[in-house]
Amino acid sequence: MSFPLFLARHISLNPHSKGARSGLIIAITGISLSIIVMLVSIAVMMGFKQEVRQKIMGFEAQLIVAPKVTADSTSMIPLVDSAMVSLIATSLPPEANAALTIRQPAILKTPTSFAGTVIKAYDADYDWKFIRSNLIEGAIPDYAQDSTIYHVVISKTLAENLEVGTGDKLDAYFMGNGGAYRTRRLKIAGLFDSHFSDYDLHYIFASLPMLRRLGGLPEGSATLLEINGLGNDDEIDKTASEITGLAIESLYQGKTNQLHTVENIHDSAAIYFNWLALLDTNVVVILTLMALLAMLTLVSSLFILILRRVNMIGVLKALGASNRLIRRTFVILTMRLLFYGLVIGNIVGIGIILLQHYTHVIPLNPEAYYLDHVPVLLDMPSVIVLNIAVAAMSAIVLILPSAAISTIPPSRAINYE
Question: Is this model's pTM higher than 0.85 or not?
Answer without folding.
Answer: no
